[in-house]
Design brief:
Aldehyde Dehydrogenase, Chain A, domain 1; binds adenosine-5'-diphosphate; single chain; Aldehyde Dehydrogenase, Chain A, domain 2; Ald_DH_CS_CYS; 37% helix; six-stranded mixed beta sheet; alpha/beta; 484 residues
């Protein structure tokens, strides 16, 4: 069983209105360790009624939370941040157990997750309005910014902690309250964060976590008129459903959806740096991030050298249970994830690609999969169009800048993109030509709390992190003072 320094962090109840509770009908579902198949815990299988109550409580709590000064809210968030950092080891162990990522990566995610709370605790104090030029001598025009109100969040399993703090941080700092539905595979990280929020003194109802039936909870969150904003991170398909469901009540939306990141290696690139970047971008979290390199475009002149260097690096990756030392790649989240990568590989091989490394389920069984490299990939193959969300690097060959930019932009998605070049003119031209919300230039790691994370096209709406991230939780109010 999971050994923690503070066993109280592992909760099997949901946290609504400051109360730890079971589903009304007592129903529960199991949370599994993907590395072993073992059940780690059971959590409440809640639905519409519990969600409705949680939203009502968030609405009551909002009245007093919004009246606190930004500094008061900041102090509570800062305490939450400190507690998250102090409990890094336990939070990472819980995350690795339910999600599978190596412990070092889980620890990294806890630091990354906490950084959003710290950042927005500070940023909340810097929300400012405006005074505008007056169009008439007896009038004055002012703009103030107010919290939008009760927010709902639906989060994915690939970053069980960071996808919560990236939403809750700005929401709470802005003076909003939030009810969160974590992914079914990884509710324990969310509940552990709620324990620490409670200990930090964040008042009842300001932050709630509801676990259970995704569709039912989502329907309540999107249809309830008390909810003024929904923030979702997950697949484009579910994002479309939630957007449609939110239409009748005209909710403000933040959507962080799928990606299909191109990773371009130009002929003037530092190839060793490009391999390092590709490894970080592609194989982190076993390829299960929405900003993972999904299509690797390599210039004809350096294609064979890059492929050989990449295969050498990939062959050194250690696959295993994330709780064991030195493991680089854990299991995939579930059987469906394994089937998707298998389908992508089979489709590519059948259409003429060749296997340079891996390609099979790993000998460890469960949902472990070999880190894989495919060469000779072209745009007719599934991997060119769909996000694989697994440890598969498909190598495409290109001959000119115009050709590769066209191929890179040939996607309904527009989240992250990457390229390697040392030519300053090309760097600007390519950076501006890529139709993506984020561009990594000579780096494979771009996410941090200071930067605006988000996409264009069908990758979503809004930005998270950075000072822009506050805007998603604020509304502008215009005051016109007349009769002066
Ligand atoms: P993934 O493919 O990464 O699992 P999903 O979009 O399916 O992405 O899941 C992301 C989050 O959305 C999870 O918390 C999941 O429970 C939730 N979810 C999935 N389907 C729905 C739905 N119909 N309504 C509301 N939430 C949903």
């Amino acid at each position: 069983m999971l050994k923690l320094q503070d066993a109280d962090l592992l909760r099997q109840q949901a946290y609504l209105n400051g109360v730890w509770q079971d589903a009304l009908d007592g129903d529960r579902f199991a949370v599994h360790n993907p590395a072993t198949g073992e059940v780690i815990a059971y959590v409440p299988n809640m639905g519409r009624i519990e969600t409705q109550a949680g939203i009502a409580a968030a609405n009551v709590a909002w009245a007093s939370w919004r009246k606190k000064t930004a500094k008061e809210r900041s102090g509570l968030l800062r305490r939450w941040f400190d507690l998250i950092i102090e409990n890094t080891d336990d939070l990472a162990a819980i995350m690795t157990a339910e999600q599978g990522k190596p412990l070092a990566e889980a620890r990294g995610e806890i630091g990354y997750a906490a950084s959003f709370i710290e950042w927005f605790a500070e940023e909340g104090k810097r929300v400012c309005g405006d005074t505008l030029q007056t169009p008439a001598a007896d009038k004055r025009l002012l703009v103030i910014k107010e919290p939008i109100g009760v927010c709902a969040a639906i989060t994915p399993w690939n970053f069980p902690a960071a996808m919560i703090t990236r939403k809750a941080g700005p929401a709470l700092a802005a003076g909003c309250t939030m009810i969160i539905k974590p992914a079914e595979s990884t509710p324990l990280s969310a509940l552990a964060l709620a324990v620490l929020a409670e200990r930090a003194g964040i008042p009842a109802g300001v932050l709630s976590v509801v676990t259970g039936k995704a569709r039912e909870i989502g329907e309540e969150m999107t249809s309830n008129p008390l909810v003024r904003k929904l923030s979702f991170t997950g697949s484009t398909q579910v994002g479309r459903i939630l957007m449609a469901q939110s239409a009748p009540t005209i909710k403000k939306l933040s959507l962080e959806l799928g990606g299909n990141a191109p990773f371009i290696v130009f002929e003037d690139a530092d190839l060793d740096a490009a391999v390092l970047g590709a490894m970080a971008s592609k194989y982190r979290n076993a390829g299960q991030t929405c900003v993972c390199a999904n299509r690797l475009y390599v210039h004809d002149r350096v294609y064979d050298t890059f492929a050989a260097k990449l295969v050498a690096a990939v062959s050194r990756l250690k696959v295993g249970n994330g709780l064991e030392p030195d493991v680089d790649q854990g299991p995939l989240i579930n059987e469906a994830a394994v089937e998707k990568i298998e389908a992508h590989i089979a489709d590519a091989l059948q259409k003429g690609a060749s296997l340079l490394f891996g390609g099979q389920r790993h000998a460890l069984g469960q949902t472990f999969f070999e880190p894989t490299v495919l060469a000779g990939v072209d745009s007719s193959m599934l991997v060119a169009k769909e996000e694989t969300f697994g440890p598969l690097a498909p190598l495409f060959r290109f001959h000119s800048d115009a050709e590769v930019i066209a191929m890179a932009n040939e996607s309904e998605f527009g989240l992250a993109s990457y390229f390697y070049s040392r030519d300053i003119g090309r760097v600007w031209r390519v950076a501006e030509a890529l139709e993506y919300g984020m561009v990594g230039i000579n780096t494979g790691l771009i996410s941090n709390e200071i930067a605006p994370f988000g996409g264009v096209k069908q990758s979503g709406l809004g930005r998270e992190g950075s000072h822009y991230g506050m805007d998603d939780y604020l509304v502008i109010k215009y005051l016109c003072m007349g009769g002066l």
